[in-house]
Design a protein that fits this description.
With 430 residues, this protein is an alpha/beta fold. It is built from 13 helices and 19 strands. The protein has two domains: 108 residues, Urease, subunit C, domain 1, CATH 2.30.40.10; 307 residues, Metal-dependent hydrolases (TIM Barrel). The chain binds zinc ion. The site of zinc ion has 5 residues, from loops.
């Protein structure tokens, strides 16, 4: 199949321009600038990409799929479908399920469920500590052998600094990156939004930026001391961006991610009952949004990541202090980043694809991230003019806790392939 006359964006190859792409037997066979093959292509052999973009499939390093144990929120099949609808061909699944993914058999279970769903590639992340209790380290070598691609206690901080130091030290043996949920539980206490003028005005308990930044600083020092590999999940505060910037200058082996919602929304959007904007870390100030974007542009922040966190309607219908943290991401993240950041010229399409595909693949040694000749055809066709009103009916996720519910998003992934197999067309799972 030729995809003709499409705007190919492939930062790993330094390509951004009109190309024809030949896909055969699940892999990229050729990329050409003009279709001088002399062949007359029938409609079945050619797809007209005029006016559309072709990206390597997006890879999400931060997804909560909720299986096993929390299937009322999401399961691996529904989460994989949401991924494919959103243009993601690979997703890294966080281990804060019930039970926690802290044993090899559980890592293998997540992997198998992903393969059974047969949609996106599902990569299990295993816990750093048993039961994510922050006390005793897991059997990292065994978890790696079972297919874990990283380690994280995400959802919970590792409060004991000595446990974190040992984790970074021991994770060097299986060559796994430790992903931190950087939050000081005592500073965060029982806050439900960013601590600042808005939280004071609303009378809601706040989570100060320091709750994140002190842990980011601690973990940089521990990474420097051990030489371990660190990745900072969902950076939200300007102080953290500054600490990571300094750490990178010192040669510490650290990467960081930002979630689209932390770039798009601020605490000023939060109201007394906007639980669809209740996330952890919380939406911070406009200043923080700006610092995060600057961090992304100068390479301090490496990846975009969704932190897709499904919850039931009943859970999110509770008042702000009681409702759980987290919002959906997979199906809305790409259109939202397109609409709010790329379209207004604040983030280039090339940078977006680099942060969401090329760099995650390289850092976590995953397939994909580029459409080089010979690579598996994990790819997404993006139509900047396609529109959709986000609704409970069209979301593939079991949940609907998204701030974009009932809003129209413009710019959609309209076809998604994994290894050359078409999995989604016109936002319908095949
Ligand atoms: Zn987290």
């Amino acid at each position: 199949m030729w995809i003709k006359n499409v705007h190919l964006v492939d930062p790993a190859q330094g390509i951004s321009g009109i190309r024809n792409v030949l896909v055969q037997d699940g892999v990229i066979q050729a990329i050409s600038t003009d279709l001088d093959t002399g062949e007359q292509l029938s409609d079945e052999q050619a797809l007209d990409g005029t006016g559309k973009y072709l990206f390597p499939g997006l890879i999400d390093v931060h997804t909560h799929l909720r299986e096993p144990g929390l299937e009322e929120k999401e399961d691996i099949a529904s989460g994989s479908a949401a991924a494919i609808r959103g243009g993601f061909t690979g997703i890294m699944a966080m281990p804060n399920t019930q039970p926690v993914i802290d044993q090899r058999a559980l890592v293998e279970f997540v992997k198998h469920q992903g393969e059974r769903a047969g949609l996106a590639r599902v990569y299990p992340i295993a816990a750093v500590t048993k039961g994510q209790r922050g006390e005793e380290l897991t059997e990292m070598v065994d978890l790696r052998a079972g297919g874990a691609v990283a380690l994280s206690d995400d959802g919970r901080p590792i409060m004991n600094a000595e446990v974190m130091r040992l984790a970074l030290e021991y994770a060097k043996l299986p060559d796994l990156i430790v992903i931190t949920h950087s939050e000081d539980a005592n500073l965060a206490l029982d806050g439900c939004m960013h601590w600042g003028e808005t939280s004071l005005a609303l009378g809601l308990k706040g989570i100060p930026s320091s709750a994140e930044a002190v842990m980011v600083a601690r973990d940089m020092l521990l990474a420097a001391q051990t030489g371990g590999k660190l990745h900072v999940a969902h950076v939200s505060a300007w102080e953290s961006v500054e600490i990571i910037r300094q750490a990178k200058r010192q040669g510490i082996d650290v990467t960081a991610e930002v979630n689209p919602h932390h770039l798009i929304f601020s605490d000023e959007d939060v109201t007394l009952n906007s639980t669809a904007l209740k996330v952890n870390p919380p939406l911070r100030s406009q200043e923080d949004c700006e610092a995060l974007l600057q961090g992304a542009l100068d390479g301090t922040i490496d990846f975009l990541a969704t932190d897709h966190a499904p919850h039931t309607w009943e859970e999110k219908a509770q008042p702000m202090p009681e409702a759980p943290f987290g919002i959906l991401g997979l199906e809305t993240a790409l259109p939202a980043v397109w609409q709010y950041l790329v379209q207004p010229g604040r983030l280039s399409v090339e940078k977006m694809v680099e942060m969401w595909s090329a760099l995650p693949a390289r850092r976590f040694h995953l397939p994909g991230g580029s459409l080089k000749v010979g690579e598996a055809a994990d790819m997404v066709l993006f139509d900047p003019l396609a529109k959709e009103r986000v609704s409970r009916d069209n979301l593939a996720s079991k949940a609907s806790n998204t701030p974009f519910l009932d809003q129209e998003l413009r710019g959609l992934p309209v076809m998604t392939w994994v290894a050359g197999g078409l999995k989604q067309k016109d936002r319908r799972i095949l």
